[in-house]
Amino acid sequence: MNQILNFIDANKERYIEELKEYLSIPSISTLGSHKKEVARCAKYVADHLKIIGMKKVKIHKTKGHPIVYGEWLGAPGKPTVLIYGHYDVQPVDPLNLWNTDPFTAVVKDGKIWARGANDNKGQNFVHMKSVEAYLKTEGKLPVNVKFVIEGEEEIGSSNLEIFLKENKKLLACDTVLISDTSLYAENSPTISYGLRGLCYMEIEVTGPNRDLHSGSFGGAVANPINELAKIISKLHDNNGKITIPNFYSDVISLTKTERDNFKSLKFSDNKFAKELQVKELQGEAKYSTIERISARPTLDCNGIIGGFTGEGAKTVLPSKASAKISMRLVPNQNPKKIANEFKKYILTLAPKSVKVEIKELHGGLPFYTSLDNKFVVAAANSIGKAFKKKSVFTREGGSIPIVVEFANQLKSPVILMGLGLDTDDIHSPNEHFHLSNFERGIYSSVYFLDEVSKL
Ligand code: BES
Ligand code: MN
Predict the structure, then answer these.
(1) 153 labelled catalytic
(2) Average per-residue pLDDT in the chain?
(3) Distance, CA of 379 to CA of 445 (rounded, Å)
(4) How far is the CA of 180 from the centre of ligand 2 (A)?
(5) Which of 37, 152, 153, 450 is catalytic?
(6) Atom nearest to 180 CA in ligand 1
(7) pLDDT tens column, 193-205
(8) Gap from CA of 400 to ligand 2 centroid (Å)
(9) Which of 91, 198, 350, 415 could pair with 364 as two cysteines, CB 3.0-4.6 Å apart?
(10) CA–CA separation, 202 vs 208, rounded Å?
(11) Residue 394 pLDDT > 90, yes or no?
């Protein structure tokens, strides 16, 4: 074990230089213009898996972006750990708010700054580097390992879902290890036992057949922006509850044990608000901030489009307005069911003076897992050992839609051993990853493979 850890320490600088290369590829999955770059990134991952000593490395083509697979199965009789991650990243706009180029990674203040530094290149590189350290020192791994690194997580993983269903044998494993979530706080080793689901909708409101002069027509013709705003304002009541009928019908209430666990984490509302520079927090009545951001369902308008938004003033009564609205879901809410309730309800809120069209963009099921699984215990011990502290258990407020599919299709427990921080600005300008978490992550991964070999 010491030899492996010494190897990691001795090669730290090289590891970071290699991560910079990985981060230099603009693998933005949602932009058609970047298809070649996404493919180049898949090639980088495949080559890297070969370099660290994985066998049968293959780039699997899909209808969308490729899936990279690699395995090392030289430990017969030992458990198999499937390590999942994604090499695709989010777009970088607004580019003018970045302090450095998003695809030229720089190390500064103990962090590495670039798009994907945390989400998810930095976090999946951790596991490649732990495997490398094992194979370069001991010549073997203590367990069997399979890597699945995909290129479509940020757009919903629909092709990986198909691949999973068609390749259950190839992907068969005893547990799935994922680092794509957050630590509860700095220096706080964390295992997440839940993820929220997602239901993403778009509402388009149309008024008159063309843009009108707001002086000649305003007052007599419905303004789609005004009407859309009224609709959105009706989606929450004064207690912060979502007003869509049956929205909460399938929500499993929090148990006393779980609420006690949340209390024991001593979340500071003050610190949270201060860091965001807001005077006051708000949300669903009778729930704490940590419950609101991880264990309760929410509805947020993500974007609103309409009318004149250029420089200066233009008096116009626009013909159209639209809004993107997403809902984060918790067990046992179902995105399809919620989408239907949403559609029905929005139509009841719209006046006859406008036409309303509602589209379902994408969704994902929420995830929740038991804590008394031996692999989860091993994971908590491993990350605790690397951070030299006792692990905490939280639910992640974000979503990783493929996780439920892993659990259901492969029938293997999924471990969410996240190494990011909620303040790392993922999906935002100046994304970064703490190098201390990168290093401790590699240690956690090494310890985990070792612990699993003893189960
Ligand atoms: N790594 C994130 C999930 C996450 C979000 C972890 C927040 C920790 C904090 C993942 O890459 C992601 O962004 N998921 C999307 C889901 C999607 C686009 C279907 C999300 O949560 O918005
Ligand atoms: Mn993401």
Answers:
(1) yes
(2) 97
(3) 9
(4) 8
(5) 153
(6) 1
(7) 999 999 999 999 9
(8) 8
(9) 198
(10) 20
(11) yes
State the pLDDT at residue 315: 97
Closest CA to ligand 1's atom 20: 399
Domains defined along the chain, listed by start: 2-195+366-453 (3.40.630.10), 197-251+297-364 (3.30.70.360)
How far apart CA 335 and CA 328 sit, in angstroms, is: 9
pLDDT digits (tens, 9 = 90+) for 51-94: 999 999 999 999 999 999 999 999 999 999 999 999 999 999 99
CA–CA dist 139, 294 (Å, integer) = 41
The question of whether 269 is a catalytic residue gets the answer no
Convert the pLDDT of each residue in 14-40 to its tens digit: 999 999 999 999 999 999 999 999 999
**Ligand 1 site, residue 153, Cβ cutoff 6 A:** yes
